[in-house]
Amino acid sequence: MAEHHPLQTNNxxxxxxxxxxPIFSLLNDHLVVYPAPKNFNYWxxxxxxxxxxxxxxxxxxxxxxxxxxxxxxxxxxxVEHIMRDVNYGxxxxxxxxxGASLFFLAVFIHMFRGLYYGSYKAPRELLWWFGIIIFLxxxxxxFMGYVLPWGQMSFWGATVITNFxxxxxxxxxxxxxxxxxxxxxxxxxxxxxFSLHYLLxxxxxAIVFLHLWALHTTKSxxxxxxxxxGPQDTIPFHPYYTIKDIYGFAVFAILFAGFVxxxxxxxxxxxxxxxxxxxxxxxxxxxxxxxxxxxAILRAVPDKLFxxxxxxxxxxxxxxxPWLDTSKVRSATFRPVFKQLFWLFVIDCVILxxxxxxxxxxxxxxxxxxxxxxxxGFFLILPIVGWFEKPKPIPESISAAVLAKSDGKxxxxxxxxx
Amino acid sequence: MRILSIALAAxxxxxxxxxxxxxxxxxxxxxxxxxxxxxxxxxxxxxxxxAAQRGLVVYKEVCAGCHSLKYVAFRNLTGIxxxxxxxxxxxxxxxxxxxxxxxEETDRPGKPSDYFPSPxxxxxxxxxxxxxxxxxxxxxxxxxRANGDNYVHALLTGYGxxxxxxxxxxxxxxxxxxxxxxxxxxxxxxxxxxxxxDGTPATVDQMAKDVxxxxxxxxxxxxxxxxxxxxxxxxxxxIFTGLMYAVKRRVWADLH
Lengths: 418, 256
Prior knowledge:
Low-confidence stretches of chain B: 19-24
Mean pLDDT of chain B: 91
Strand content of chain A: under 5%
Helix content of chain B: 40-55%
Number of strands of chain B: 4
Largest interface: A-B, 52 and 48 residues
Strand order of the largest sheet of chain A: 1-2
CATH class of chain A: Mainly Alpha
Mean pLDDT of chain A: 94
Strand content of chain B: 5-15%
CATH topology of chain A: Cytochrome Bc1 Complex, Chain C
Low-confidence stretches of chain A: 409-418
Number of domains of chain A: 1
Shape of chain B: globular
Oligomer: heterodimer
Largest sheet of chain B: 2 strands, antiparallel
Structural class of chain A: mainly alpha
CATH class of the largest domain in chain B: Mainly Alpha
Order of helices and strands of chain A: HHEHHHHHHHEHHHHHHHH
Radius of gyration of chain A: 24 Å
CATH architecture of the largest domain in chain B: Orthogonal Bundle
Radius of gyration of chain B: 25 Å
């Protein structure tokens, strides 16, 4: 099987640097020889896709900031200036706006994948936690970014979301005033959101490194959810997963380019092409699509404070999933009951997303409540499932399972090819 | 998998009823505009230059009475096929407020670098002259409404008499395509309201279509550049993806 070599080189420059700072061995250990399970499927591509998207968002964002103005009287105009007068400004803006959407699409798939294969279970709890923290910061960043064009949805979305905090007993209103920097969403709000929107992606980069550090410490989980038993179960990250990740990102990029070039406003809201007007409230204030499931949970209960608590709980509950799930088996592949509950949960999240797009009236209230109950029910039933579920037999090792799948073909080894 | 299939069926029912819910709506909800085949829609669509130029005439002679177009400069009109001389001549027709050499306020003839001037001095004056309703800027109108091009066309051609049981408020006009079905703008277009240099008969429908093409261009003058680059990027990505897939298979071939 492929070996995982430490860095060996005769290059004098590399050797000189290595003695002083072993950066080349660090890169070699983590990007080249890192032993990855040989059985990743394409759901495992989304981690690298997310990394590339984060870099892309930062790069396009930095370029946009060169032309954007965060003064409330000029923000909307400056975005139009970018769209009309800046060379390829439209490309930067559409990449950034649609990039945010696809970033969320990828992170949702990445999280569902982690849930399905039990990637949160010991010893990967901290890895999972860093992931949730990344998700929370992503949400804050995306929300504040959506405010920056200072259109109608920017303004009213900001008003609705910041108002959540007014639900806090006693100190709610002072907190909201403090967040706004005034008595309404206004110039100071826009300026501070801009400042934080620029700051948080770099915080994200730092936490991504912690996420990767934890990943490379515990090593990657895999679709079978069993630990590699030895070098025969792993392959070096490069070239096997570098090329697979490049291929995966290329497919993802086709979808991304499809939105950027041919439907750049499809995921946005037309009202955001109307300049912010504090005196005119849009008929329906809806957040971006990736917030809709949480928006539906918020509105599932008639009480504001309880709704806000429920909405935050919907994310915070992810932190305790490693302990809620009592099953010893990681991968849903071998968990017949969990597997069905999981797919129900995915459907449930989609339904919540649909509910979130509609005003809370008539049947949407009922559907929203039922979906919210299942959302939490899924997590709360996990301890019981782990107790009564009878898992299917688990393969002896990754290699054994891979060999069984390749149907008696003579296995070739990396030693043979040299 | 029984739980799963029940859930899928439930999801399908919800999906179906959501489309029903969309189709319904209140009694005064806006009527859905009918779809028109615009040359500028679709992945290869480009602006119909002749229509956009006719639309410019409609904007200039009709809409510009009340509506500004503040993000469009005369120089931008090369985008709908006007040449430098035509743009210079058009710009000169406008008086632009400026300061003279002594710093005194003055009006001077427009230059290609100027933007379409607003018909009113400020928003307050605009609202005051229009019964309190501010005529919105039209630069982004097509992007600022759902299904913008069909909507604006439907609105411009959709004026008519209100049904007997519908109370139109004082100073408003009935139009089923507007949310609430009544608005402050009276029917702006009438047969032969403008004369087209290319001899196209100026019917209300023709003028509405042409001004939509012009406004669609005004809302996104870079649309053609975007689609053009998009086609190239797509071709590149498809080839690149194919190559990467081939390389991936090659690299993985020595594993089982």
